[in-house]
Amino acid sequence: xxxxxRNFWQQxxxxxxxxxxxxxxxxxxxxxxxxxxxxxxxxALPELLNKNGKPWAPNVxxxxxxxxxxxKLEKFLEEKKPGGKVCSFCTxxxxxxxxxxxxxxxxxxxxxxxxxxxxHGSASGEICLDCLxxxxxxxxxxxxxxxxxxxxxVITYLFPQGKDLEETxxxxxxxxxxxxxxxxxxxxxRAKFFPxxxxxxxxxxxxxxxxxxxxxxxxxxxxxxxSSNGNTNTFLSFDSFENVDELMELLKTNESLGGDFSAFMDxxxxxxQPLVDTSMRExxxxxxxxxxxxxxxxxxxxxxxxxxxxxxxxxxxxTNTVKGVNGLDQETIxxxxxxxxxxxxxxxxxxxxxxxxxxxxSRSLEDLLLTLSDLEFKYAKExxxxxxxxxxxxxxxxxxxxxxxxxxxxxxxxKYLARKYASSKNGGEKVxx
Length: 433
Hints:
The protein is about 45% helix and about 15% strand. The chain is of the alpha+beta class.
C-alpha cells in the first residue's frame, strides 16, 4: 500500500498505521508499507473497540459511529484497482471511488452542519478506498482529553500537522513524551487539575514539553472538540496554532523572572465541590495563545477567584514583552504593581473590599483620578493610608490610562486575596502584607 497524504486527517491516519505496520516508510507526504489493510486493522482492533470488545472505543466513536458493526468497514479493506476515476485526495487513478465522508475528513463541512454530517456521513467529492482507510485509523493517532457534562460526553482532540507527513511524524514523536494510556485522557501534563478543553489542553501540553525539551517544533497544532450524547454528535470547535516562536519567548521570559507557568494557570481553576470548573483557565489560555491583551478581562476575572493568582507579576511582564505585542514595559508594570499593592493592603486592613469594585468600575481617566483621590481622603486618618506614587499618576493620559488602571486593579485585588487567604490559614489573624 502506497498513499499520498493531503490533509491533517490523512496524516493522522498514516501516523496511526505506523504502530501496526512495522515496515512502514514515510518520505515527504507519502507512506508505503507491504502490510495489507486487513492486517493493519486486525492489529488495531483492540484499540478501536471498547472494553467489551464492541464498536467503538469512546475516543474514536465520534468518527466511526455510523458503522455500528465491524463488518461494515470491510468494503474499505479491499485493495484498490487501477482505473479511469481520479481520487479527490491522493489523485490516484482507480476503478472504484466512494463519496467523501466523515471517515476521510471530518472537517469537510461547516461546523454548524457537523451534526447532520455525522448522521449521513457524506459531502462533496469522491475518494479512493485507501484514503478512506486512513480515515478509519486517524482517531488512534489523536491526543485527547474528555469530561462528562450531564448526558454529554465532550472530547477535545490535539494533533500536530507539519509541512509534510515526514515533518508531522517527527513532531508527533516529540509529543509522544506526554502520552499515557487512560480512559478519560491519553495525555499527561504538569498541572494540578488535568485539562479538558482545547486551549488549556494545548498550552499545558506546550509548557510540559517545553520544560522537558526546551523547544517547541514549528508546526500547525490542530485542536477540535466534539460532544456526544450517544446518538448525536456535535462538532463544537476547530482551531489551530502556529506562533511557536512567540510562545517560546513568552515561556522563557516567565521562567527567567522565576515564574511557574503551570501554577499560574492552575490559579484560574475554580473548585465547586464536587466539581472542578476550568472555564476561566480555558479563557486565559485562549488569550495567551492568540497573544491578546489579558489585562482588560483579567481585572474582572480576578474578582471571581477566592485566592490570589500565583506568579501573576511574572506572567503580566511575559505577556506584555513578547515580540510583536504592543504592551507595557517592565518599568511601567512595576509602577502599576507598587500602586496596586498599596491600595490592596489598605483595603484589606479596612476590610472594605467594595472599594476595589469602585476602582474597577472607573469609566474614564477623570473618573479614575477622582476615585483614587476619594480613597486617599477616606483612608487619610487611618494607620494604613493610601498614597498613590506620583510616578504612577504621571504615566496616565487620555490615550493610555486603561491598561495601567486595569493592572492597578489586578494587583490590588491580588494583594487583598493573598492576605485574606494567609489570614484564614492563621486562624483569622491578619498577616502582614
